[in-house]
Structure to design on (333 residues):
């Protein structure tokens, strides 16, 4: 048991924190501790989890990307325009178009980083502003409401009426999120490419000497995030039933905080899908609880900043060094 806790210290700690916060919020608010609220949290968190597993791959590879949320907004508009050209399309064509545009935008980041040796955060700050500027320039900030019926029609996978007359439901975004989570888990834990991504993130020079194709690793990592950004953007349009140019603006910090909180190391070479999902859920639970308590949304932004600071500190220190039950046996014991 101690060996398991030591190996999965971050995930165990996050689960404990989620349980404590949920217990406090269930006492502090009337509606938090309910099945309907739990299902709502899952549906609402789906897009952020899709973004998060994509960002996880980039962080594992030793990079960082803050342009993916804006890229998802670009994907939304690009996909809506292409769907208009082809007469509406369907879910398969929509996902193919969104995923392709997302991969292309991710490849632009990878190209800048690999070809010109630009630091990833600098490159993505640049593309963040370029993508958003171009989007606002060409759209003039106008939203798109005329979307194909298949994209705006809600798809309910499971629903059940509770004793109090309320309904609980699982919608399409949850299914897509689960598929993206499983696909990312398979990529980083069950493939040679995944092992190479960890090795490259942990020791880039060692990976280079070992014969790992550095360019390929960067294109795979940022391309995967681009794919997840494209899928997440399309699912967000489905959930909101509209395309708004700045709807996803600012979400990159929430997702980054969640992924780093989930155990991904900014230096690369570390991170798990389970921890990533728990990080997003913790952020969502905190935000949901504050909303139910009537706390200002600006307070949540302060909490996000504190979470990023704490998560980076733990990333550098190692949470296992701070928890007594995960520490190694010392001398004289």
């Amino acid at each position: 048991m101690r060996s398991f806790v030591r190996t999965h210290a971050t995930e165990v700690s996050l689960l404990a924190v989620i349980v404590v916060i949920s217990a406090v919020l269930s006492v502090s608010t009337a509606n938090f501790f309910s099945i309907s609220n739990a299902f709502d949290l899952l549906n609402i968190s789906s897009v952020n989890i899709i973004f998060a597993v994509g960002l996880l791959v980039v962080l594992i590879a030793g990079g960082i990307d803050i342009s993916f949320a804006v890229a998802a907004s670009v994907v939304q508009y690009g996909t809506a325009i292409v769907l208009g050209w082809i007469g509406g399309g369907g879910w398969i064509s929509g996902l193919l178009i969104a995923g392709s545009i997302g991969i292309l935008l991710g490849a632009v980041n990878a190209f800048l980083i690999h070809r010109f040796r630009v630091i990833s955060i600098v490159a993505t700050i640049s593309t963040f502003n370029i993508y958003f500027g171009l989007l606002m320039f060409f759209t003039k900030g106008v939203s798109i409401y005329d979307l194909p019926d298949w994209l705006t029609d809600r798809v309910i996978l499971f629903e059940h009426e509770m004793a109090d007359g309320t309904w609980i439901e699982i919608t399409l975004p949850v299914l897509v999120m689960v598929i993206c989570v499983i696909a990312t888990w398979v990529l980083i834990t069950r493939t040679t490419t995944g092992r190479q991504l960890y090795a490259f993130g942990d020791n880039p020079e060692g990976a280079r000497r070992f014969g790992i194709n550095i360019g390929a690793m960067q294109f795979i990592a940022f391309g995967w995030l681009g794919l997840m950004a494209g899928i997440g953007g399309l699912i967000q349009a489905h959930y909101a039933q509209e395309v708004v140019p700045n709807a996803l603006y600012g979400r990159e910090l929430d997702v980054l905080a969640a992924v780093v909180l989930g155990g991904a190391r900014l230096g690369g070479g570390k991170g798990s899908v389970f921890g990533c999902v728990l990080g997003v859920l913790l952020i969502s639970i905190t935000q949901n609880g504050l909303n139910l308590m009537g706390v200002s949304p600006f307070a949540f932004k302060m909490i996000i900043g504190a979470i990023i600071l704490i998560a980076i500190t733990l990333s550098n220190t190692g949470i296992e060094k701070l928890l007594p039950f995960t520490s190694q046996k010392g001398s004289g014991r």
